[in-house]
Design brief:
Layout: E1 40-50, E2 53-60, H1 65-72, H2 79-87, H3 91-95, H4 99-112
Antiparallel strand pairs: 1-2
Length: 119
């Protein structure tokens, strides 16, 4: 059975297949064409000051396959830590939110998760 991550049917720019590059230490440089695609933002009812800077809005970036892999491999120990990764925030910031803000952020986060991570 072919490995879906390294299919022989995906030609690369140098004419080799992705399977030929499976052992390369340095992978391709990949950049999102639309880095904000799939983001969701919430304006806090009770803004916070974090390290002297105002925090008025929390934005969650879209999940990547790497995020899902890290959850599956145990590198992200909880959904809260996954939320913090997507928001780019320290867990203490999420813990400091008033309940209406926390509830809204968590609902937004749950809506973004694939079904297999919701249980």
């Amino acid at each position: 059975m072919p490995d879906i991550d390294f299919s022989d049917y995906e030609p690369l720019a140098d004419g080799a297949s992705s399977a030929d590059h499976a052992g390369d230490a340095a992978g391709p440089r990949i950049e999102a064409l639309e880095p904000t695609a799939g983001e969701r933002s919430y304006v806090l009812l009770a803004p916070r000051r974090v390290d002297g800077e105002p925090l008025r809005r929390i934005t969650l970036r879209a999940l990547t396959q790497q995020d899902l892999d890290d959850v599956a491999n145990g590198e992200i120990a909880s959904r809260r830590l996954l939320l913090c990764r997507l928001a780019g925030l320290h867990p203490d910031i999420i813990r400091s939110l008033i309940w209406p803000d926390s509830e809204a952020i968590h609902q937004m986060f749950i809506d973004m998760l694939p079904d297999f991570l919701k249980d």
